[in-house]
Design a protein that fits this description.
With 413 residues, the chain is an alpha/beta fold. It has helices spanning 13-24, 60-71, 84-97, 100-128, 146-154, 156-162, 172-178, 201-214, 256-260, 323-337, 380-395, and strands spanning 5-9, 28-33, 48-49, 77-79, 134-135, 139-143, 168-171, 188-192, 196-198, 218-221, 224-230, 233-238, 242-245, 247-250, 270-280, 290-292, 297-302, 305-314, 342-353, 360-363, 370-374.
């Protein structure tokens, strides 16, 4: 048994995965979050373990499209005007990440993570008895036009195949054979047979939390106001008192930026908000997640209905839900289903996004008793288990299974 007591700040899927990994390694672990487990960004994701996500968003072709997308109210990209000053460091970092050499390095880093995700996920799901929440039916990504489909086949989809992604191109009839209740809005698409999804992101987090506490882990619902490194540990200032630990791991998504700034660690992290609507689609059925890639929305069949998730809205984490974004998504769903589904609930939450599309993982150079695991953008669920494994390996003094250099917070200095 390890003698160190480690605090993990953040009870989302990344924080819980990290806490479980540390607990399994024998450490005493306390998770601290002002919300109940899984109630932050982890609550609202599209539910995909996105094995195909191996390409950074940062490239000049995407940068050139952004102005037009921001002017188009029906596009998946939007920005809150008052948030623009907060985006400036991110925008500069995005520009630098677009250069070919950095893009190639980013691809290699994402591929290295992806090569370890399935085993890390499997270990965690077996450990926590949560495998019944996961379905392995693959995932469909569809294009509205032959031209768009052909362009993707010669671009991103070709790159993904070169990155080792198992994918198949399907024509409109083949898509209809897989999902007969979809409308014929598409010219065809790509099928990822190895992609898995969860029928309940919240229940998955709750299973993780239950296993953690049932095996001696502690979950404290409180707000961490400051992280203060000491010579022999780390002090956490909470809402009513302070408490010391041997080590601390920060997995607080967008809020990580504010906790790190007083330590001299500046990360150009931004709040990239995603929306979801829970739909009742009546007698229609879906067997797997289906994305309309032109519009960047996904329909995922879940335990409580079909989740319509997507969009990238750069806005303050506490900004009110923008009804226009939700309405635009619903219009896309109507086209996909050739029907008007009933809305059961609407949600918005903030993804923690970095300029180069890579998460921030590992110990801080200036404060080695503090480790971090945040900035996963759209891939918190996908990379949660492997992030926890890598942080545990580094704390144990082992050589991590994946080189952590590309994911270091110091890369932004």
């Amino acid at each position: 048994m390890q003698s160190s007591h480690i605090a993990v700040i953040g009870a989302g899927v990344v924080g819980l995965s990290t806490a479980l990994s540390l607990k399994k390694a024998g450490y005493k672990v306390t998770v601290i979050d002002k919300e109940a487990p899984g109630m932050g960004a982890s609550f609202g994701n599209a539910g995909l373990f996105a094995d195909y996500a191996r390409l950074p968003f940062a490239k000049f072709a995407m940068m050139c499209k952004m102005p037009g997308m921001l002017l188009d109210k029906t596009s998946p990209l939007s920005m809150q005007g008052s948030y623009l000053p907060s985006l400036m460091p991110y925008g500069w970092g995005f520009f630098k990440a677009c250069f070919p050499a950095k893009y190639v390095r980013g691809k290699a880093a994402l591929k290295a993570l992806q090569e370890h995700t399935q085993q890390a996920d499997r270990d965690l799901l077996v450990l926590t008895g949560a495998a019944d929440l996961i379905k392995s039916e693959g995932c469909l990504g569809l294009f509205a036009t032959e031209e768009g489909f052909a362009t993707a086949q010669q671009g991103d989809l070709k790159e993904r195949r070169e990155q080792g992604v198992n994918l198949q191109f399907l024509n409109a009839k083949q898509v209809r054979d897989l999902e007969p209740d979809l409308a014929g809005f598409h010219a065809g698409g790509v099928f990822y047979p190895d992609t898995r999804f969860t029928v309940s992101p919240l229940e998955l987090s709750r299973r993780y939390a239950h296993h953690f506490t049932a095996n001696g882990g502690i979950i404290a619902q409180d707000e961490v106001l400051a992280v203060q490194p000491k010579e022999d540990g780390v002090n956490l200032r909470l809402s009513q008192h302070s408490v010391s630990f041997d080590r601390v791991v920060i997995c607080t998504g967008v809020a990580s930026k504010a906790l790190l700034a007083p330590l001299g660690v500046k990360v150009p992290l931004v709040s990239e908000r995603g929306y979801h609507l829970t739909l009742d689609i009546g007698d229609k059925q879906l067997s797997r997640p289906v994305g309309w890639l032109d519009k960047a929305v996904f329909l995922t069949p879940m335990a409580d209905g079909v989740r319509l998730a997507g969009t990238a809205e750069f806005a303050s984490a506490d900004a009110p839900l923008n009804p226009q974004r939700a309405e635009t998504m619903l219009e896309h769903a109507k086209v996909m289903l050739d029907d008007t589904p009933e809305i059961k609930s609407t949600w918005v939450g903030s993804r923690p996004s970095t300029p180069d599309s890579l998460p921030v993982i590992g110990p801080l150079e200036k404060h080695p008793r503090i480790s971090v695991g945040f900035g996963h953008g759209h891939l918190g669920l996908t990379f949660g288990a492997i992030t926890g494994q890598l942080i545990t390996e580094s704390i144990q003094g082992q050589t991590p299974s994946v080189d952590l250099t590309p994911f270091s917070a110091a890369r932004f200095s």
